[in-house]
C-alpha cells in the first residue's frame, strides 16, 4: 500500500512525525506476509474445534470454526515432543507465510493449544474436495486435457515456491487438493509444507539438503539425486513428472508403492528410459509423452525448471486450443463467463474506491481483512487467473489492461491504469505488478463497505453480536472484534499495535498508531476509535467528483454481455 496520503494528523504531532506518517508505507503483500506469524494467543480462544478430516506424518487435520467470523477453516495440530520438532513446525509456518499464490494453501496463524502445551496449531483454509490420489483411485486416470490443466497449475505453484527459494520436497498426489466435482482442476491447492526447506540463493543449490533417509519424501516420488544424497529444488520437478505419469495412466512409473526398496533401485537404474508401454498411453499425444520425459530427466542439470517446463509445446498447444470466451457454447460455461465479467467489473470499481482512500487507517483495515478474514475461494482464484495468464502469481500492468478491455469493454491508457494502481501495487525493476494478496486487499474494502451499508440500511441495533453467536458475520464486525478483544467498546493504539502485529518499541507502534487514530477521529486529541466511529469510517464514501479517476474505465458492460450472448447462441 502506497503511503501517498496527503491527509495527515496535525497540531498534536511534530513536523517530523507528520513527515514519517506520510512516508509510512506497506504493501498488502508485505503486510499479509508479515501478519502471518506466530501469535501468542491460544487456539481455543479463537476457534471451535470440529471433526477430524485427515492426518499425516506431521500431525492431524481438523475442521474448525473461526469465532470472530463464523468461517470454517482447517487446523493442523502437531504434537511437539522435542525442540527439533518444535523448530520444524515453526519453520513450516514461516515458509507458508511467505507464499502468495492462488494454487498454494492460504495460512492464517500459528497458535498454542490450551489443553496441551506441546501442541501447536497451524490454521489454514479448509478444502473438502479430496486429493488427487483419491480422485485417481476412484475415477481412474484423467483425460489428457485435464492433465494439462493440473500440470500447468502445479508448475505455477512450484514456481512461486522456487521464487522464494523454497523447495517443497514432498510433492505427491496426496498433497494436491482438488475442488469438489469432476472436471475442473484449475483451482487445485498444493499443501503440506512439513518437509519444505529454504536454500540460500548465494550458495550452491546442492548444498541445500541433507542426505536422503526414510523420513524425507515419498519413495515413489523421489529423484535420483535424493537417493544419492545431494540434490536441489529440481527434485520438485521430478516429482511433478511422476504425478503427470500417474494422472495419464493410473500407475506409478517405477513400481508399486508397496515395495519402496525396489522402487528406489528402479529410479536409480532408470536413466532417461521411461516406459510408456501401457494401454492408456497408446492414444496420448507424443508431445505429451515428451513433456513427461523432460520432467523425469535423470540428470538434474538437464532437467527443466518450472518456467522452462511451462514453455513446453504440449502445454502451450493445449492453451491455444482453448476456445476464446466469445466462442463458449455451453450454458454452464456462458454463466461462468458472465460471472467472471461481473467479478472483473467489481475489481475495477474496487480499484477506484481504494484509490480514493487517503486515510491510512482504511488502507490498514483493507490489508487486515485480506490477511485474516477473507478466505480463498474459486471466484477469487478465477479472477486472478484471468488477470495472470502466465500463472506466476503476479499480475502485470499490461495483462490487467488487456483483461479490463476484454471482460469490461473499457477504454483507457496504460498510464491511466498505472495511476489507478499506484496506492496498491508492488514495483519491481520498474514493472508494476499486483500480487494475489493485493487482489484480496483491494476487494476487501469494497466488500466491507457494502456489508456495513446493508447492516445500516436494515437499522440493526446490534451490529456486533456476541462472539460465538453462530453464523458467518459481517467481515467489518469481525475486524472490530479482532481489534477490540476485550469488548471495551473502543480501539486503542495498543490494540492497533497488537492487531497489526507491529514490532514494539518502533515509531510505527508508538507514534504511527496514535496518528492513525487521530486521522480517523474528528478530534485530533482523541486516543481511541469508538465503536460508532469505526462503523462510520467503514461505511466510506464514493470518490468525490474531483477524485473520480478514469471515467472511461467504468463503461457499462451491457453491450459486451449482449454481444457474448448473441454470438454464443449462434
UniProtKB/TrEMBL annotation:
GO terms for molecular function: ATP binding; calcium ion binding; protein serine/threonine kinase activity. ATP binds at residue 76. Keywords: ATP-binding, Calcium, Kinase, Metal-binding, Nucleotide-binding, Repeat, Serine/threonine-protein kinase, Transferase. The keyword tRNA processing does not apply. Its cofactor is Mg(2+). It catalyses: L-threonyl-[protein] + ATP = O-phospho-L-threonyl-[protein] + ADP + H(+); L-seryl-[protein] + ATP = O-phospho-L-seryl-[protein] + ADP + H(+). Residues 375-410 form the EF-hand domain. It holds the Pfam family Pkinase. Belongs to the protein kinase superfamily. Ser/Thr protein kinase family. CDPK subfamily. PANTHER family: SERINE/THREONINE-PROTEIN KINASE. This is non-specific serine/threonine protein kinase. The lineage of its organism: Eukaryota, Sar, Stramenopiles, Ochrophyta, Bacillariophyta.
